[in-house]
Design a protein that fits this description.
Blueprint: H1 5-13, E1 18-20, E2 32-43, E3 62-66, E4 73-75, E5 80-90, E6 95-101, H2 103-106, E7 110-112, E8 118-119, E9 124-133, E10 139-141, E11 146-154, H3 185-189
């Protein structure tokens, strides 16, 4: 069951869902609007043939870009950047979140989190957002612009193990800025 605005406000008032900072007028009928933080991980220009090897860290392929209040970042057609939500999110043991794009941005070709919009119970931190441009023109990104929305669903029961539990190897718990893929760690552990 998707939580309504009334239930979202109630869960926030009880301290079970934490959104910091929370801008009250960002609570929609069944979601909360989230904003773009100032740090982006962009792919560096490559001078030689390059590829992404899923067995190795992609950190050498990225560069950190910082947005300021006034200047835009131009996301070119076909490009992907990783960003963070301005808001830090904390979820209890019986609620999951779903991060979705804004329809108005999708209509101009700006897509977020095509595969990674699920937020597990027990999550704590800023969400990393995958932002891609499928339009034929560059699209501007601005610090603090509305970039997505999170909706919430109540589980049938509290979970036995929260995201972040040691035995789950939760790689992204507590992140505060855009975090590159850690998929390569699967190969190290076998």
């Amino acid at each position: 069951m998707v939580l309504s605005d009334r239930t979202i406000k109630d869960e926030i008032d009880k301290g079970r869902i934490i959104i910091d900072p929370l801008i009250p007028n960002c609570i929609q009928p069944a979601s909360v609007d989230l904003h773009l933080d100032k740090k982006l991980l962009a792919f560096k220009p490559q001078r030689h043939p390059a590829y992404i090897d899923v067995r190795h860290s992609p950190d050498h392929l990225h560069e950190l870009v910082e947005l300021d209040e006034d200047n835009a970042f131009f996301l070119n057609p076909g490009e992907l950047v990783l960003a963070s939500t301005l808001e830090s999110i904390t979820l209890p043991d019986d609620i999951v979140g779903r991060l979705e794009g804004k329809s108005s941005l999708g209509r101009i070709g700006l897509l977020i989190n095509s595969t990674a919009g699920y937020v597990d119970p027990g999550w704590q931190g800023n969400l990393t957002i995958e932002i891609s441009n499928v339009a034929k023109l560059p699209i501007t990104l601005y610090y603090k612009m509305k970039i997505g929305q999170i909706s919430f669903r109540r589980l049938t029961s509290p979970v036995d193990r929260l995201y972040g539990a040691a035995e789950l190897d939760s790689r992204y718990q507590g992140q505060s800025e855009p975090t590159a893929s850690r998929y390569h760690e699967d190969f190290v552990k076998g």
